[in-house]
Amino acid sequence: MPPATRTRRPARAAANARPWDDPTLAPVVLVRGAEPLLAERAVDGVVGLARERDPDVEKVELEAATYAGGQLTVAASPSLFGEAKVVVLRGTEACTDDLVSDVVDYVAAPDPETTVVVVHGGGQRGKKMLDAVVASGAPVLECEPITKDADKVQFVTAEFRAARRRADAAAVRALVDALGSDLRELAAACSQLVADTTGTISEAVVDRYYGGRVEATGFKVADAAVAGDAGGAVALMRHALDTGADPVPIVGALATRLRTLARVAAIRGGGVTARELGLQDWQVRNANRDLARWTPEGLASAITAVAQADADVKGGGRDPVYAVEKAVLAIARARRS
Questions:
Q1: Is 296 helix (H, G, I), strand (E, B) or coil?
Q2: Where are the beta strands (DSSP E) in 206-298?
Q3: Distance between CA atoms of 329 and 190, rounded to whole angstroms?
Q4: C-alpha distance across the termini of the chain, in Å
Q5: Separation of alpha carbons 78 and 336, rounded Å
């Protein structure tokens, strides 16, 4: 994290931070981050805890963009019959000045019988309010987007585990390849597979439900290219582009696949371990299988081709589609027959 960013963050933020799936009750809770699905689940987790403590808890929601002064005070006040309350302030990244002022005042002396959940999707608007909430010692549930491939795999695995269903590694990988760009869609797919199937969820099951999506992803293109299937890789690439895929993520998938091969090759050399490189066992097994057909020179050549394609699709070349196809063919040809 750059020093400038670190100085803007409240000093106590790290001590208050918790993952989105570890909610807790407190007079004030901050749900912060740009991933809407995780923010919704974090709020649901807090509300669920409140209802475990008191089934009659009253939930009140206020929209920050249309907030008027004094609404928080009214919403957080004890009800006529004394029921506990959870007040959810939605969309505070677009808050009014009145809300900032009211939250700053409220966190200084919150009602211990009420839980106020401040939901902020990111950005600098409302910073004074956020700083006051964090400085008060309120728990912060972090809901940042899941961008790393390994974290998406972990998310899907956790979804199936929570539903008490087993999915093999290939199935999880196929689902992430097909739908990994949208976390909400990925979660919905997990729910559908759990509801519509029985037994262990396999790659064949995922392909049956999402095969068209799976075959059109950059990772399928990369798999075919790394396997030396030039014709298949180009066909998959063209299908992906024809169905709306962008050249940039396809090149990204090619680069990710080759980097994994290079990392596993380094493990073979004994210099580092899979854990140090952040690789999972299934990634190492698959890469070891592929490396049997690759020489160090061929791998270096393929990586160079993808680096050139990356520059071309990001503005350095005239034809991004041609740049991707050229890289795919270069990878397939670099593999030892």
A1: helix
A2: none
A3: 34
A4: 44
A5: 73
| Average pLDDT over every residue of 118-136 | 95
Q: Find the Cα–Cα–Cα–Cα dihedral 179, 228, 252, 150, rounded to 10°.
A: 60
How many of the other CB atoms lie within 10 Å of CB of 319? Answer: 12
Joined tokens for residue 137: 């010692």
Assigned token pair, 42: 């974090």
Instruction: State the DSSP string of 174-189.
Output: HHHHHHTT-HHHHHHH
Residues 6-65: tens digit of each pLDDT: 333 333 344 689 999 999 999 999 999 999 999 999 999 999 999 999 998 999 999 999
Token reading at 209: 């439900």
Q: Which residues, at least 6 apart from 82, have a Cβ–Cβ distance to it below 8 Å?
A: none
> No. of H helices and E strands in the chain?
16, 6
CA–CA distance, 68 with 128 (Å, rounded to integer): 18
Q: Which 3 state secondary structure label does DSSP give 58?
A: strand
pLDDT tens-digit readout, 214-257 = 555 677 888 889 999 999 899 888 877 876 777 888 898 899 88
pLDDT for 140-149, tens place per residue?
999 999 988 8
- Compute the distance between CA of residue 223 and CA of residue 6 in angstroms, rounded to an integer: 40
pLDDT at res. 290:
86
What are 135's two structure tokens?
A: 């400085």
